[in-house]
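With this grant's support, we have paired protein sequences with backbone structure tokens. One protein thus recorded is set out beneath this paragraph:

_____
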Amino acid sequence: MQRSLTVVLLAPLTLCCVIGFVYAVDSGETNKSKTPGNSYYLFTKNLTTDESGVIRVPPRFQWSVETSFRGTDRAGDPLPDSRLMLRLFDPDHNFTAMTAQIDLTTAARLHEELGAIIANKLQDPAYQHRPQLYHRKDIPVKRLIGVEQNGTAIVEDVSPPAEITPRKK
């Protein structure tokens, strides 16, 4: 009876120690080599939305580019994070509306693209850059039929039906 009581009490304690050890090893050494991907956060609580769902960001908001912060380990040392953070913030009310943590590859690509656009705009203020973000076949085509009294548009779908490819036998 005494032996089974000891086993019952020591088994959970041993399990907790093993889990704690695995957690400590994982958070200490292996996280330093992990390279987290891109992450984006949008905080809208302090912003107003119009009836169509558009959020207007006041002109006092500013952009900031920072090194990303991942946290601290149990010893209080900072955890390395190679990402950069773009932040859209309100300096008057200590509020961040958006953060984008991006890896160095993405940051370098955006830096190159933005540099080329700025150089072209400085040479020719009429320069326009409109990347094709979507495939044309994924954009529905609509035709305006009329407008209701409350201002809502009445539209009809004129997109061609999706092509059906024959099944191979």
